[in-house]
Amino acid sequence: MFSNEAKRLRTLPNIYDGTTDPNDRAIQVHRQPIRNIQTVIQILDDDNSIIDTIAGKATAGSLNVSADSLTRRTGTISLIVDPDYIPDKNTVIWYGKRFRIYQGIVDMSMRPQEYINFLLGTFVVDEGTLRRGSGSDNIEIRLSDKMTKYDADTLERELKIPRGTPVSQAIRSVMELVGETDFGYIAESSEKEIVPYDYTKSIGTNIIDIIKELRDMYMDYICGYNLLGQFEYKKVEVQKSDDVKQPIWRFDTTDNSRADLMISFTETYSLKNIKNRVVVYGNTSSKTGYTPHGEVRITDASNKFNVDAIGTRTKIIQNNNLTDDMQCVSQAKYEIWKTAHFQESATITTVPVWFLNADDIITITNPTTGEVGKYRIDTISADLSVTGTMSITAHKLYFVELAYGKAETPLVDAIKNGINNLGWLSLGEQRIKDCYGISASGDHTMVVRFIVENVGGEQAAVTGYLTTKKQTLEIDLRDFEKLNFSSEDGDVGRSQGDYADRVMGHEMFHAVCNDYFGTNKTMDMPVWFKEGFAELLHGGKQRYMSLTGFVDNNEKKHHLVNLSKQILNGTWNSTSEDYVASYLISAAIYYVLGSKEELHSAFQRLKEVENINLNFLHKMLPQFGKNNDEVKSIVLNKLENMDLWNSLNDISDPDTGSIGGSHMINLYNKPLDSSDVFNNKLAKVPSLGFKLQFDD
Fold it and tell me: Which residue, 162, 342, 480, 630, has most beta carbons within 10 Å?
């Protein structure tokens, strides 16, 4: 029945089937300067057993993959004319038989050389065409994945799925009803992701329509057949960066090595359809009169399209297929994911990367701007020939931070109390005014927003915008979960350096600078200045003492002095050591100036200068040198020889080393420890220079 050559090849070595991330060997064979390839076909019976393996018979072929289509994979394969390939019950092309197609690449680094075989998909035959004559003898076979079997299939009997059935269970039961037995990953629906009503379909209803309806009850799910021909149902994590799997390939034409295979790149943008608030309304109940609805907004301060940065831009959707709030929220999240950005769509022509698949994450370095972004692959089209290329379309990923839920309400109320009644913002502003001589105007809004991210990241962060005077203060509730509600300082169960009033005071330095200097100017200021003087506000002793691994204090000092030199020359790695070194630089600047009044003048001087990042130290301290290098030398000399080192190394000295403490301006004629740095009993208003708006 089959050719002798085919019968000798029953199994394949070195298969990559997409069930794991590609290993180093799979990656490296794609980067070889020369490729020897062959297309291999396995013939499967209806029980998934391998009937035969065909190598060396394919003359051409193509592959198309789509993330959005239920039938994800289609293609064609051209074979040398052979009686075994003419459709007949005794040949390879017949009912129940399927093709698994591999593209093999010879690993030229191995001896003996061998193929790495990349699975391209598991297919059923749609149709075949025999072409003979004119010097071209071949059989062209059109292929689709198994979902194509259900294009014309309809229900043979009535389908009933009870209300409350998890959607994952419902969709699996439908597939089992039509005879599917081979399943891949089936995501388990959450307790809220249920069929919201008694779902009934009559005899004759199209199977594909049922699958689509169940899939789209909660919009961020996809289903279809994987590379192995197994039915799968999985959630597409698009709202949070941490949930998105790591990129498996990088396209970067700036890389001069063979790592980049990209031939061409284009990207399109949409400027008119940007929406950062989506409201979805469902079907109004005839019994209760209630209309389900859901709302999602882009509030992530790092997203340049958030509601604070460009104002609220709303899209209203009416979908009568939705019957509860959860469904409406799900669609709102899905729609905002598609519209809260420029909707960048990239098209890449590349030398084929055979382990890439629809929905995979890749990174692309824009060859014009140099910007690196994460993209999700939408479609792939590839030519299987030796000289063939691959075309990829992909969309850029943007992420939506999670809002807090009801469980966090007591914690939110406690933080609000700290802001409104204990001066967690205003005391920092007052210290900035007293010691640095600058303040916010009082004319602009500070949006205070509570988010739920990860413990150990940014506890709080201020963001200013070039497009508006409004600023955002984001507070990550994960870092405040152990907040002692009775602590005026905001003890969160970690070090004293993490007291909430100190964290908020640090952030208010950034907020005041954005308001006083302007966000455009603040963005151009050196990072060491912004972070160093923010640390100096409340003192850096606890962070300094947390640095370990040194033989003694002299070695520690030597390391931090050298690091300070590097930071003043432009390095910044955002480590705790960088923050300590920046704090030390800021303290040294105070000692160079010698008084509160001179420090005020230095800050106020910065408001008048242009091109602030160029020779910054000389612009801040022009009286101490003819150029930036001279001023830098004076600051570093003071840093190395200042008496503050003795206090930082003295565990019996309670002062935190803050600008207002006993080792500097000495505002209160006493050391200021962690509880006294900001005296919460002196608080009178929530904020001195901002109109606060709590975004609940």
Answer: 480
List pLDDT tens digits, range 30-69.
999 888 999 998 888 877 888 888 887 788 899 999 988 8
Angle between helices 426-436 and 527-538 (to 10 degrees): 110
Tabulate helix, strand, coil % of the chain (nearest 5): 30, 25, 45
CA–CA distance, 43 with 589 (Å, rounded to integer): 76
Q: What is the pTM assigned to this prediction?
A: 0.60
Token pair recorded at residue 368 = 């014009």
Residue 599, helix vs strand vs coil:
helix
| 662 close to 402: Cβ distance less than 8 angstroms | no
184 burial (CB, 10 Å; 0-12 / 13-18 / 19+) is middle
In whole angstroms, give the CA distance from residue 82 to residue 538.
82
The total of other beta-carbon atoms located within 10 Å of residue 487's CB is 18
% of the chain at pLDDT higher than 70: 90
Q: Is the Cβ–Cβ distance between 16 and 118 less than 8 Å?
A: yes
Residue 656 sits at φ, ψ, to 5 deg, of -80, -5
Q: Taking the chain, what is the end-to-end CA distance rounded to the nearest angstrom?
A: 71
Task: Read off the pLDDT of residues 557-602 as tens digits, 9 standing for 90 and up.
Answer: 999 999 999 999 999 998 999 999 999 999 999 999 999 999 999 9
Distance CA 393, CA 376 (A): 9
pLDDT at 8: 38
DSSP state of 614: T
The CA dihedral of 358, 363, 369, 370, to the nearest 10 degrees, is -160
Q: Which two tokens stand for residue 464?
A: 């200013």
Query: For the chain, what is the largest distance between any 2 Cα atoms, rounded to a whole number of angstroms?
Result: 102
The first and second tokens of residue 390, run together, are 């691959």
How far apart, in whole angstroms, are the C-alpha atoms of residue 379 and residue 526? 42
**pLDDT (tens digit, 9 = 90+) per residue, 521-560?**
999 999 999 999 999 999 999 999 999 999 999 999 999 9
Q: Which two tokens stand for residue 377?
A: 């692959």
